[in-house]
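Quick one:
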Amino acid sequence: MSALSPGRRRRRVNTAALLIALPTILVFAVFSWWPILLGATMSLQRTNFVGPADWVGLDNFVYVLSDPQLQHAVVNTLWFTALAVLFGFPLPLMLAVVISTVRARSRGLYAGLAYLPVIVPPVVAILLWRFAYDPSPTGLFNAMLAPLGIGPLPWLNDAAIAMPSIVLQATWAAAGTSVLIYLAALTAVRPELYEAAVLDGAGIWSRIWHVTLPQMRTIILVMILLQLIGAAQVFTEPFLMTSGGPQNATLTILLLMYRYAFGGAADYGAATALGVLLALVLALLSAVYLRLTRRWQE
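Output:
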């Protein structure tokens, strides 16, 4: 019996791998790609899911782009994204670095405490924070700030501080996952690099800046991109905390999409058109970001 040639052996291995992955590919196609195609099709239709759908071409996109509320939603989403990256990016990284310096026996405990907010169901966590944001002098946060001579603050009832208040809750809720990812990345940093830095007289901050961060730059750049994408799709926090108020100060793109679909007009075509526009913008942003940071990741 003749042995298989390298080319035939490689094709046989590839075929076997494809057959093994086929069930996963089918499930992913049915529950991910197919809804995306349906959404793209619906963006060109006017439908209420009851009667037959009417093809309207690009009318839904024209309606969405001419809606004066879209400008408020875009500005608020960019404001939320900027605050989320400004506070939500360095905090988990600093926590991970600090936790990595404690004894190995206690490291798991601190990592578990950092991850604890992620375990709390999002709706429960948001409602608890909404209760803590009570604007009265007896509200939890206002009572804590009173001895410092601060407040009482209106928190979610003031257009100027409503969005930062939501960012604070979102950062608290999501930081734990990033902490664990950074801790895992820190284990890949070679100990001899720290030893060489110590021999050169480098202090703790110098070691972090010249050893830790450069060795983690790839995961840091990826985490920044994921945080940008996630922040641009914020919905649950403003929906449950403020419903987009006060005075549309926390109206985001996804919340506007929700209003199109379930705000009374049941304009599902406009909602999906806005979703398609957001997806295209995020895809373009990701491509540009990866292109600009390719050299830094090498």
